[in-house]
Amino acid sequence: MDEVMTNYLKGLFETKLNKAMRLYLDTCARCGLCVDACHVYASMPETKYTPVGRAEVIRKLFRRYFKLQGKFAPWLGETIPLSDIGFDQAYEAAFSCTGCRRCVGFCPFGIDTQQVMGIAKLLLIGVERQPQILAMLSDMSVAKGETYLDSAESYVEALKNLEPQVEALAPTPEGRAAIPVGAAGADILYVGLSGAHSIVPAAAIMNAARENWTLSYFEAVNFGAWLGDAKKQAKISSRIVEEAERLGVKEVVVVECGTATRVLKFQAGRHSFKVLSIIELIDRYLAEGRIKLKAGTIPGRLTYHDPCQLARNSGVIEEPRRVIKALGADFVELTPTREDNWCCGGGGGLISLGEQEFRMKSSKVKADQVKAAKAGTICTACENCHTQLTELNEHYGLGMEVASLTNLVAHALTGFAEKN
Amino acid sequence: MAGIYYFIMVPMVYISIAVLIVGIAVKAASILAAPAPAYSLKTYPARKRPGLAALADTFGMGMIRRRNPVFWFFLVWFHLGMIFLLLGHLDLFPAIHLVPAASRHMVGAGAVGVSVTVPAFYFLFRRFKGQNRHISVPADYLLLLLLLFTFLLGDMMSWGNSWTAHGFVMTKAAFRSYFGILSGFTFIDPRTVLHGSHYHFVVLHVFLAELFLMILPFSKIVHTFFSLPLNLLRRR
């Protein structure tokens, strides 16, 4: 690697050295407490799959290029150069980490491995070794922000075809469309994913609550966040932020997608509206008596998987439990649960990358945890988790139903006569 | 050799403290000058009083107690020992009397040294086992060995003075005189107040302690200063 490239990469590295990162890189005591936090290590016990093992790849570069130790005694900290070997390690570190941040709760200093892996991802972009699938998906999302009006008409047409499915779950309030799109003056902008399953149940619930809502032209998912490209992440988010501000909505409600919720809630800058997940909205409707649910629609025992980005990283922990209580299900918690729950193993873009063999192997501990709950159905509130749990269910023969919590709610809606 | 001993016992004490203070100040300044994170890095459930939660994380280390109680026990033992160790050294300054001035005992009567030495052995041995061995780098072992030898030499002095009447040639009063030289900036040769053949061990103890102080700002021991700000990051 020539000096120009080395300096370029050092420059990229430096852009990540904010207050938090300087503390994260300098302070780790290598006490090893984080080791047991990672589902990958718990399933495949190799040092490179420990949070500290991953972060050390970046720390060794940091010590090499930004510390006196790297100049005078590189052997002390086993520093590594910005060479190809370093990048192979960086790739494996960055894309074996789902960014679940479970290790933050284990570390006595709260060191955030996901943040440290952000450097690895940025360096990979710098040498054009980023995962091409994520790069392509990010570019497509960015491009859609620029050209969505070209396909708006066909999108509205496609949505019309979904209206009977929405009507089957809950009647549409008079004078309103079953799936309104781009409606100025709406109180809520709902951001779904590509696929009817992310739109129909939420539409039914909001219609049942007689909500003044509208659907976004864009998908909530942010591939830029998984890619580790802050610029693309910001561009993808800004499509939704600009749409929400143009329509003048009070709230943006995000589909069952943990990363999208966290990105829009906390990482998309200041905006004029509030961001909440669909689960928080359902919980509010139940508290306000705006929707009613039939009890006993879920046969057998039900358990709930807390999506990392929604629970531990966005604080949506009690809301899904109150919703499940309203469903009257025979509910059992996973062990561990809530903020300590094991990651499903599908986050950080791993689902989009494919990586099925790795995802199945690295999530054995998750499969064991789910199996131990002895539930007939496991529900969750994140598309990625849902996909991963479905694949784990098949791979490990867990014999469970995997459900979306929003979908369970939509199919339990009742009591429309009094309202409509 | 006498010149080297003098340098270690007097000027280098000031140098090491200066390196520690300047090193930490520069490090703190570089952190403060860096841009703030673009968004909150906190984890949930949110605490009503994030500042108090961060203090509890830093000093109570509840996350370690829940997951590895043995490690937590040694960590608490060690860190409490370090506080008493600091107090024990402060007690040697002529103007400070944490134990009666007439007492020949140092703070803790030798127990303070043990309270840091035993956990230091534990910290070192655990680095030879399992994943801890794989995640450790040479600096981790060297730092622990540096601490361990500093402590062991300190134990010789505190035990010798506190647990036996005639075990160590130099008395607490002699060390108090040495600390008087340092705090008074008189630059008198400590050999005039620290008599006997054990002087070599005292010099070695001081030398290792100086190395530790000078290394501290550039090593992971900076967690002494940055643990609380780090815990604040995840709480608010």
Radius of gyration of chain A using CA atoms only = 22 Å
CATH architecture classification of chain B: Up-down Bundle
Query: From N to C, what is the helix and strand string of chain A?
Result: HHHHHHHHEHEHHEHEHEEHEHHHEHEHE
Which secondary-structure class do the elements of chain B indicate? Answer: mainly alpha
CATH homologous superfamily identity of chain B: Transmembrane di-heme cytochromes, Chain C
Low-confidence stretches of chain B: none
Largest sheet of chain B: none
Which outline of chain B best applies? globular
Strand arrangement, major sheet of chain A: 2-1-3-4
Helical content of chain B stands at 55-70%
CATH topology of the largest domain in chain A: Rossmann fold
SSE order of chain B: HHHHHHHHHHH
Q: Sheet with the most strands of chain A?
A: 4 strands, parallel
Mean pLDDT of chain B: 92
Name the beta content range of chain A: 5-15%
Give the oligomer, counting copies of the same chain as homo and different chains as hetero.
heterodimer
Question: Would you write up a description of this structure?
Answer:
The complex is a heterodimer of chains A (420) and B (236). Chain A has 420 residues and is an alpha/beta fold. Chain A has 19 helices and ten strands. Chain A has helices at 3-15, 19-27, 39-43, 51-66, 68-72, 84-94, 113-126, 132-169, 200-208, 223-227, 230-247, 258-266, 278-288, 318-326, 350-353, 356-362, 364-372, 383-395, 405-410, and strands at residues 188-191, 213-215, 251-254, 274-277, 292-293, 301-305, 330-332, 377-380, 401-404, 413-414. A four-stranded parallel sheet of chain A has the order 2-1-3-4, sandwiched between helices. In chain A, helix 1 (3-15) runs antiparallel to helix 7. Chain A is globular. Chain B has 236 residues and is an all-alpha fold. Chain B has a single domain (2-235), classed as Up-down Bundle (Fumarate Reductase Cytochrome B subunit), CATH 1.20.950.20. Chain B is 68% helix and 0% strand. In chain B, helix 5 runs antiparallel to helix 6 (111-126), helix 6 (111-126) packs antiparallel against helix 8 and helix 8 (138-162) runs antiparallel to helix 10. The termini of chain B are far apart. Chains A and B meet through helix 2 and helix 4 of A and helix 2, helix 4, helix 7, helix 8 and helix 11 of B.
